[in-house]
Amino acid sequence: MSEAHDPLRSLFKEAAAAGQSRACSAPPSYITERGERARRRRIVALAVGACLVFSGTGAAVASLVPDGTGTTVPATTPSPVPSPRLSPSPTSPGSPTSPSSTPSSPRTTLPPTSSSSETPSTPPPVSPTAPSGSITFPPP
User: Fold this and answer.
1) Which among 110, 115, 71 is positioned nearest to 93, based on CA atoms?
2) Of 6, 102, 112, 134, which residue is the least packed, with the fewest Cβ within 10 Å?
3) How deeply is 53 buried, as exposed, middle or buried, from its count of CB atoms within 10 A (0-12, 13-18, 19+)?
């Protein structure tokens, strides 16, 4: 069979002629809008990537920097604060004690009692040398 009488070739030529007659270029405004959309997508992708890089770098730096939340040990061990109920009173039992004569405890301060036979209405203070949660009672 010769190429001039090939039915498939003649059909393709007819389709090409019909496509050429109907073809037209897109309006320039449409082409410009398409280009702007593509440019905006690229800028947004670049901005998101930059944000991810900066936040990842910031998180890595924050995890590597030591925090100063008190992980260091003090140079000396603090001495235990004596309990005001256990130490002997420098004044007589009937006289009120002055604030400067008794050692102060940062945890609790008990009011002075007028007689030694009264029982306190508040629980005894926690000893600073005792384990956490334990209570030391004064001797009877």
Assistant:
1) 115
2) 134
3) exposed
What's the full length of the chain, in residues? 140
Instruction: Please state, in angstroms and as integers, the Cα–Cα distance from residue 46 to each residue in 12, 62, 109, following that order.
Output: 45, 24, 64
Instruction: Kindly state the tokens that stand for 90.
Output: 């420098």
Q: Which stretches of the chain are DSSP H helices?
A: 7-22, 28-64
Other Cβ atoms less than 10 A from the Cβ of 33: the count is 11
C-beta of residue 86 within 8 angstroms of C-beta of residue 138: yes
What token pair was written down for 102? 């008794």
Distance CA 87, CA 79 (A): 15
For residues 4 and 93, give the distance between their C-alpha atoms in angstroms, rounded to a whole number. 134
* CB neighbourhood size of 83 (10 A): 20
Which residue pairs, CB below 8 angstroms and at least 24 apart, start in 112-121?
Answer: 120/85
> How do the pLDDT tens digits run along the chain, 140 residues long?
456 678 899 899 999 999 988 899 899 999 999 999 999 999 999 999 999 999 999 999 988 887 766 566 667 877 787 666 665 555 555 555 555 555 554 555 566 665 555 555 666 665 556 555 566 677 76
